[in-house]
Every structure is written in structure tokens, then in C-alpha cells.
Write a structure and sequence with these properties.
Blueprint: H1 2-26, E1 30-32, E2 39-41, E3 45-52, H2 59-72, E4 77-84, H3 86-98, E5 105-108, H4 114-119, H5 129-133, H6 135-144, E6 151-152, E7 155-156, E8 159-160, E9 169-174, H7 175-181, H8 193-206, H9 218-225, E10 227-229, E11 235-238, E12 247-248, H10 253-267, H11 282-287, E13 293-297, H12 298-302, E14 314-318, E15 325-326, E16 334-337, H13 344-356, H14 358-366, E17 374-376, E18 379-381, H15 418-426, E19 431-432, H16 447-465, H17 472-485, H18 488-509
Parallel strand pairs: 3-4, 3-5, 15-19
Antiparallel strand pairs: 1-2, 5-16, 6-7, 8-16, 9-13, 9-14, 10-11, 11-12, 17-18
């Protein structure tokens, strides 16, 4: 009898455990009742996303609509979408990750925190999950081969975009001001740092009370000398160097030259002094007519800048047109899943739907038809009275990682045929792919040195770059010695080792 009681007790315990497990697995599902057409829906799982940029007025309403749509398709989720200004975004991601915060998905990029987050193990390995929960998206990546760029130690730690672009620099200035001053500037006349210096001084003389620019000259010297910044603690190499010799930027002659030019611009009130502490977005200042000169890319030389006032006009000129320039990285825009996410499979299912569903894609990219955009002959345009600077959703920050040329519509910003033109430009012989695109550098062996290097970059390199130091030559010399004292040789040796190994492995796959 006692034995029978134990058997019955064990049976009851197992039954309870089985029911509990079933209930746990079904918490994220909509359960279809066989007796009729009604659906018993449990509370949707909330997916928390982070994107960069300012939150637009209709964002919450749009993402509520997105949630309703995906639930109608069987994915029982809703969305908590957070936006962080881009000048705070990198630190926000790194801080949240270090604190072990739980969120599900975020936008990232090599120009933000992606390489640091990946090196620190902050992102979830998707190697097994991606093909299982996002088969259509995985198939796209198999076709493009782009996943290799976001693979670290055989782990897929991000989902890169599939767009081919080039960030070759263009000088841009307000044509309406130039016309007002009576300047005569021929097409493509502004091509060198000397040309830019002359134009900026002419603008300052003609419009002494206007803000001229907030862009430092450093990136212009990069083009002139064909230097490639690898987006890793101010290290890089010269494009024409077959050995890809890693060097510290501060030790290059152009760094001193750029600092001296920046100092002259700052002293002559051409370069805005407040740019180092400004919380304003540079692109938005250009759109709002707050500056007269900018450095931009082929994308914004071709796209509609969305000026706040229809009287504003711009002209663009390609800088150093015969110099080689590296195409935009596959890691220029990335979607990543936090390693602490409780719902990675649901995130991937959402991304897979986004890859295959035009209706969902339109909702995510453009919002709600009739409220945030209108569809006119297949073109997504702003509703009457709305423009880029007053948009209540379109052109939101971070959307770039979702760009899909199969679904992207012509818009007020990107006209019909824009993406074909962009691809053609990036494919010109002078625009080349990076030989180390896809290399995710590990910080493990040099973490202490990199931490100190970054502190010195912020304390010394940034002020030099924007010309807010008393004596450029002395500050550059001091900065170089400080970085040497921080064992820059060890940093370079470690990075060079990883670069060399990456090239060897890459050649082995060819």
C-alpha cells in the first residue's frame, strides 16, 4: 500500500511539472481553439529595442501598430522602443552592457560601439538561432556572404546591412549664400584642403556673424594621404601599403597638419568652438540652416537634404577625385541581440517577417499611411505640410540597418533609381572594398592599454582635432609621448598580429 502511495505521489508530481512546462512554452503563443474561430490570446511578450537619434512624435503609435500587425500574423509580441541621442548612444550601450541590463535588440555600427561591444562579448551568438528562427534572412546572408563581417571567433554576433555604399567625402556649401555674396565658383572647383580653406575664409569675410562650419579638417587629410582609419582607437594604415602596416594616427604627419589648420580655423572663428560639447546633431544643423559649410558623402550629395526652408540651396564638390577611398563597411549599420536577452528567438522571427513582408516593412520604415507618410505612385512622401525636419516618424535614426532594396520605396529623400546610382558609384575603380572588412578585433590582450589610450584620445586628440589648444606642435608632441608611455607599440603589435592572421585566413578561403 505504501509503495502504491509513493507511485501515485510521483505520478502527480510529474503531471504538475508537465503542465507547468506546457504553460511556460505557451506563454508566448496565441492558442487556437478547435471548437470555433475565436482565439485565446495570452499577454504578448514585450521586446525592448534601442535605436539612436531623437524620438519622433508618432513613434509609439507606429510601433503599437507594428505590434498589432505582427500579432495578427501569429507573432505574439509588443514593442518597447527606446531612442538615445547619437552623441550619447555609444556610452549608453557600453554602460548598459557592463551593468548587465536586459534588453532584446539594438542598432549599432562600427562608427558607434559595435566593435567594442563585440570584443567585450556583449552580443549573443546567433550561429544556431539565425537559420532556425530566421530562415529567409539567413538565406539572404548566404547569398551576400555578409555574415562573415560580423563573425568573431566563429560566432555570429551581429546582423549587418546588405547595402553597397561609399563615404568618399564631398565639400558642401550653401549656394544661396554664395550667390548672395556674388562668388563665382565653377563646378568641382573645390577639391583640396587649400580650396576649402580659401572658400571658408571668403564665407567668413562675407558673412562675419554666421556660423561657418562645425567640421574639423582631419578627415580631408585622410583622403589626401589615402589613410584608412580602421575605427579602432585611432589606428589605421595607408591604402597603398601592401603590408597593411598598422600605425597610430597621432604619429602621422597629417595629424599635425590637420591640427594646425583646425587651430587657424578656430582662432579665426570659422570652426565652431562649441562643437566638442554641443548636443546638436550636425546633419540637423545643416538642414536647419545653422551652418554654411559641411563635409558629407556621395549619399547626401545625391539625396534631398530636407532643408527646413525651401529657399536654402546647396552645392557639392567631390574632394580629391583621383584618390582611392575605402567603400563603406558591411558593419556600417548593424542589428545586434543583447546576450542577456530572454527572447532572441522572437526577435529573429520578427526580423524574418521584416525580410519577407512588404506591409510590415512599410510600417517599420515609413510608419502609418495617411499619418506619417502618403503613398503616391509607389513613392513614400511626407503628408501635406510636413518635411524632414518636422517629420513625425519617417527618417528615424537607426532605420538604416533595416534597409532592403527589395522593399525600399522612392521617397522625398531618396528619389527613384537612387540605390542603383549609389551602387554604381561605390563600384568605380577608385572606390575599393576594405581588405579587412569583417575583422572584429579582440581587446582581450591589451584591454588595460586600450582603456588608457581612449582616455588620452578624449583628453588630447579631440581638442587638437578641433583646434582648441594653445600650441598645436607642443600638444601633439606631448600627446605622442603619452601614448608611447602607454605602450602603443604593444597595442600595434597585437592589432597587427590579428590583421595579419585575418588576411591569411581570408586568403585560405579564396
Amino acid at each position: 500500500m505504501v509503495k502504491r502511495r509513493y507511485v501515485m505521489l510521483l505520478f502527480v508530481i510529474m503531471l504538475v511539472l508537465m503542465l507547468t512546462a506546457c504553460n511556460t512554452n505557451e506563454q508566448k503563443l496565441s492558442i487556437k481553439l478547435p471548437s470555433d474561430e475565436s482565439t485565446l490570446t495570452v499577454e504578448p511578450t514585450t521586446l525592448k529595442f534601442y535605436f539612436g537619434g531623437d524620438k519622433k512624435a508618432a513613434s509609439d503609435e507606429v510601433w503599437d501598430e507594428i505590434g498589432q500587425y505582427v500579432r495578427s500574423k501569429g507573432l505574439n509580441v509588443k514593442f518597447d522602443v527606446q531612442y538615445v541621442p547619437f552623441n550619447e548612444y555609444t556610452n549608453k550601450l557600453l554602460t548598459m552592457s557592463a551593468a548587465g541590463d536586459r534588453w532584446d535588440m539594438n542598432f549599432d555600427a562600427e562608427w558607434l560601439a559595435f566593435k567594442q561591444m563585440a570584443a567585450k562579448g556583449a552580443y549573443l551568438d546567433l550561429s544556431l538561432l539565425l537559420p532556425r528562427y530566421a530562415p529567409a534572412l539567413y538565406k539572404k546572408y548566404e547569398e551576400t556572404g555578409n555574415l562573415q563581417s560580423a563573425t568573431l571567433h566563429d560566432q555570429i554576433v551581429g546582423l549587418p546591412w546588405n547595402i553597397k555604399m561609399n563615404l568618399r567625402k564631398f565639400a558642401g556649401w550653401r549656394l544661396d549664400y554664395v550667390e548672395k555674396a556674388g562668388f563665382k565658383i565653377a563646378d568641382d572647383e573645390i577639391q583640396t584642403i587649400e580650396d576649402i580653406d580659401r572658400l571658408l575664409r571668403e564665407l567668413k569675410e562675407a558673412f562675419p556673424t554666421e556660423r561657418i562650419t562645425r567640421t574639423s579638417p582631419l578627415s580631408i587629410y585622410h583622403i589626401r594621404d589615402e589613410w584608412f582609419d580602421i575605427n579602432f582607437y585611432n589606428l589605421g594604415f595607408y591604402i597603398n601599403d601592401p603590408n597593411l602596416t598598422i600605425q597610430a594616427m597621432e604619429q602621422q604627419p597629417f595629424f599635425l597638419e590637420a591640427g594646425l589648420m583646425a587651430k587657424s580655423w578656430s582662432d579665426d572663428r570659422i570652426l565652431s568652438k562649441e562643437v566638442l560639447i554641443s548636443m546638436e546633431d550636425g546633419a540637423m544643423e545643416w538642414r536647419n540652416g545653422k551652418i554654411l559649410f559641411t563635409i558629407t558623402s556621395h549619399e547626401w550629395a545625391e539625396a534631398n537634404p530636407g532643408f527646413a526652408n525651401s529657399s536654402y540651396k546647396q552645392t557639392m564638390s567631390l574632394l580629391y577625385p583621383n584618390k582611392k577611398y575605402i567603400n563603406r563597411s558591411q558593419l556600417a549599420n548593424v542589428i545586434a541581440i543583447n546576450k542577456y536577452s530572454l527572447n532572441p528567438e522572437l526577435v529573429l522571427q520578427f526580423l524574418d517577417m521584416l525580410e519577407t513582408d512588404q506591409v510590415l516593412y512599410d510600417l517599420v520604415q515609413y510608419g502609418i499611411e495617411g499619418k506619417t507618410y502618403e503613398l503616391v505612385d509607389d513613392m513614400a512622401v511626407y503628408p501635406a505640410g510636413m518635411k524632414t525636419v518636422t517629420s513625425n516618424y519617417m527618417e528615424w535614426g537607426g532605420q538604416w540597418a533595416f534597409w532592403n532594396t527589395d522593399f525600399l520605396r522612392p521617397s522625398d529623400t531618396y528619389s527613384a533609381g537612387f540605390w542603383e546610382r549609389e551602387t554604381k558609384f561605390a563600384s568605380e575603380p577608385k572606390n575599393i572594398d576594405s581588405p579587412i572588412d569583417g575583422l572584429l578585433l579582440s581587446e582581450t590582450n591589451i584591454r588595460k592599454e586600450l582603456l588608457e589610450r581612449e582616455k588620452l584620445i578624449q583628453q588630447y586628440a579631440r581638442p587638437i582635432e578641433f583646434g582648441v589648444v594653445a600650441n598645436v606642435e607642443e600638444e601633439v608632441a606631448k600627446y605622442i609621448e603619452l601614448q608611447k608611455g602607454n605602450n602603443i607599440d604593444l597595442i600595434i603589435k597585437e592589432v597587427q598580429s590579428q590583421v595579419d592572421q585575418y588576411i591569411v585566413n581570408k586568403r585560405g578561403l579564396e
